[in-house]
Amino acid sequence: MSDITVSTDSASLELQANELARQLSLPFSILNPDQIQLVITQQHFEIRTPDLGNPIFIDFEAGKNAHRRQFGGGRGQPLAKAIGLKKGATPTIIDATAGFGRDAFVLANLGCKITLIERNPLIASLLDDALQRATDNLDLQQVISRMSLINKDAIHYFSTLENHQHPDVIYLDPMYPSREKSALVKKDMRLLHELAGPDIDSEQLLTISRDVALKRVVVKRPKLAPFIDDQKPTTSIESKNTRYDVYLVN
Ligand SMILES: C[S@@+](CC[C@H](N)C(=O)[O-])C[C@H]1O[C@@H](n2cnc3c(N)ncnc32)[C@H](O)[C@@H]1O
């Protein structure tokens, strides 16, 4: 994160941008198209990079998130089945690898209370900003009220939980090392990879998650990827390009 700066395109937001830079321990700078920058605009927080084209921001109100909310397939979609929603159950969930919050948003839409954990402060800022904006949208208020964000490392966070705070389900979608190598990888995923790097501690994260979850741990993987740490799941649920490995807790 050393070359990243915080900026704004609006003089009236300079104070806010300076404050955010201070919170993130990053320098504030003027707009610079040659740098990776977290930019506060009148509309939202966005990340601008020299090589990824259009800015990247999170929007729960429109675009892919809104589309998936409307047409995603409800409790019948593979993610919901893997989490265990089929019999009308609505478990408490911790999404320990929140990223852009897309999967968490799907699950919150299906009625689950979900805690999003994201360790990368820049990605957590984008998420926080998107959640706050969506709270002002009357249609989304209820859904967003089920989502809470924690900017911490999940492995550390889990080690501090009291027994009564353990969730029914822990959901993991760690960055898969080879995702960035494919030309087909979407640019927002490439940005996630550029900012967060590969998640080299996913073995440890899976192991502690299996100790903490009360009912199950679900791991999202590319369809042909090996199991994390060779840990064989109880079952797997597949969709077109994705596999959800489900580890039931005994
Ligand atoms: C592939 S992305 C997740 C995408 C997400 N499922 C979505 O729907 O947008 C993985 C994210 O998990 C975060 N992450 C990985 N390991 C973590 C950990 N131990 N604690 C917190 N966040 C973690 C990374 O910083 C990255 O943002």
Structure description:
The chain is α/β, with parallel strands linked by helices and about 250 residues long. It folds into 2 domains: about 5-50, no CATH class; about 65-250, Vaccinia Virus protein VP39 (Rossmann fold, 3-Layer(aba) Sandwich). The protein contains 9 helices and 10 strands. The chain has helices spanning about 15-25, 65-70, 80-85, 100-110, 120-135, 140-145, 155-160, 185-195, 200-210; strands at about 5-10, 35-40, 45-50, 95, 115, 145-150, 170, 215-220, 235-240, 240-250. The strands form 2 sheets. A 7-stranded mixed β-sheet has the order 6-5-4-7-8-10-9, with helices on both faces. The protein starts with a strand and ends with a strand. The relative contact order is 0.12. The structure holds S-adenosylmethionine (SAM). S-adenosylmethionine binds near residues 118, 119, 120, 123 and 192.
Task: Supply database-style keywords.
250 residues, alpha/beta, Rossmann fold, 2 domains, seven-stranded mixed beta sheet, three-stranded mixed beta sheet, 10 strands, 32% helix, binds S-adenosylmethionine
